[in-house]
Each structure stands twice: as structure tokens, then as C-alpha cells.
Amino acid sequence: MRMPQTFGRRGGGGSFLRGRLTILLIAAVGLFLYWQMNQKPAPFSGRSQLNTIPIQQEVELGQQSYLQILGQEQGQGNEVLCARDMCTGTEAELTSRVREIGARLQAAAIELEQDLLAEGYNFTPVADTFDWTYYVVDSKTPNAFCLPGGYVAVYTGILDITGNYDGEVSMADIADPDKLAVVMGHEIGHALAHHGAERMSQAKVVQIGQVAVGVGFGDMDAGQQRAIMQAFGIAAQGGMLKFSRKHETEADKIGLDLLVRACYDPREAPELWQRMGEIGGGQRPPEWMSTHPASETRAENFRRWMPDAIAAYERNCGPLP
Ligand SMILES: [Zn+2]
Hints:
Radius of gyration: 23 Å
Helix content: 55-70%
Largest sheet: 3 strands, mixed
Number of helices: 9
Distance between the termini: 73 Å
Order of helices and strands: HEEHHEEEHHHHHH
Number of strands: 5
Bound molecules: zinc ion
Strand content: 5-15%
């Protein structure tokens, strides 16, 4: 074990320590300014978010990942329904169901953004410029996502949870579209609020911070460096997790707003999330595994939002059954 006598290496530990602190201080100030300068008003919530990615680039990245993910699914034998020319029968029916729900939600998104702008919220609307695309992936995984740019995928594995919940995926599951609309609305909520871009921007800041810490403590022995890097990593991870819970709550709220505008029953939302909470850990899609808020928090949020959501539904769509 090498002792940290390295302090005395360059004529006096004092000046060396000062040098190290200066590097860290400059890095911290730099990161703080970078963080401040790249704050943009987040749509819907009124908070501001770190976003260093221009919208065109965000949409391009969304499209690239969409093609990549769908390609990988196909490579693993999970067919992307109606991706080829021939599209009939069950494939066609499932796909057109998902596209119907999507069309109603995306129209609701455009409307919602315009209404918020009229109410004085300050943000750049995107729904109307998105390249809305919907595909169904034939896979057992209960999953669904909407990437930046409006690239939506629904996995058949989720249809029983959003359907009659009898343990089997069948056409009967798409008879009632409301719970599937809850899932799609939530996922679209993430894309509208730029959560992906925010996460990528935060990851960039963490990376720069890591380099700065590495340079600042570069002279320490390997064990100490590792300990410091680990502490930094845990702090960064904690910060990101806090944001991902915030993202989930925002997506829940935006999803609910989209539902009532598109005339889907808002009361299905808490029920769907309760089902999601019930599925076993191994089966749960990655997003929900790591970042979904505690079920009680989520249920509590929906209880708080529901009176307004029901009133809005009845204003737009007539009385609920
Ligand atoms: Zn989510």
C-alpha cells in the first residue's frame, strides 16, 4: 500500500493542495454555468429543465434509436407487425387499433400545447412537428415506449395488462382501449416533456464532472481515487434517480390530460398503474423496474388529480358512465 506521501512531491503539500482545489473549483464553476445556461422551460410543469439538445437533433436521435430497437427486436425473432408490405388479419387489426388511439392522443397533445401557450406557459410546442409513427412488436415483454419525435412502439406482451387481465394475450384484450390509451398517453408524455433529452444532457454534465474529479485527484493512489470516483458516481446516480421519479410523475399528469382530451376514461389510469405494480419484477419493463414512483405516491397523485380530470372529461366528452 502506497501512503499518500505524494503530497510532498512538488515542493510543499500546501501549494499542491491549492492547485488541486483550483482545478476542482474551476470545473465546478464551469459546470454550474453550463447548467444555468442550458436551462429551458419544461413544457406542462412550469419547472425549468437542463436541455443541451436542439429539437431537430432530438427527433433524429429518436428516429435512429427507433429503427435500431425495432431492428434488434426483429433480429431476436420478435416480429414488428405490418412492417412489411403484406398486412392483414390480426396483425392489421392490432396495428390499426394502436394507430387509432395514437391519432386521438397526438391530436390531444397538439391541442394541449396550444391551450397551455394561450394560458401563458412559456415553451416551444413540438407535438405538431413530431413525425408520429406507431408499430406493434410481437413480443412477450410487457413494454411500450414513445421516443423523442413521436416514435411509438407497443409490445403485444402489455396487451393483457391493458386488456382483460386474464393472463393471456388475445384479441379480447383490445376490445376496450382505455387502459392501453393510459400507457400510450404516459409514454407520449415523456416525449412531449423532453425527458430523454434532459437525461442525456444530465449524463453529459456527469461525464464532464467525472473528468474534472479525475484530473483534480489524479495524483492520489488508486484506492483513494476509486473511493472518490465511487462517491461521485453514487451522488450523480442519486440525482438522476430523483429526476426520473419527477419524470414519471410529469408523464402521469400529461398522460391524464391527454386522456380526457381524447375522451378516454381517466379513472382507468390509477387502475392500470396498480396492475403494473402487481407484475413480477422479472417481467416488468426496465423503465418501471428502476424508476417508477412508489405505488402509494402514484395512487395519491391520481386521487389528487382525478376531480379535475373527470370534470374536464365531462366538459369535453359528456357524462362518464
Ligand atoms: Zn414513464
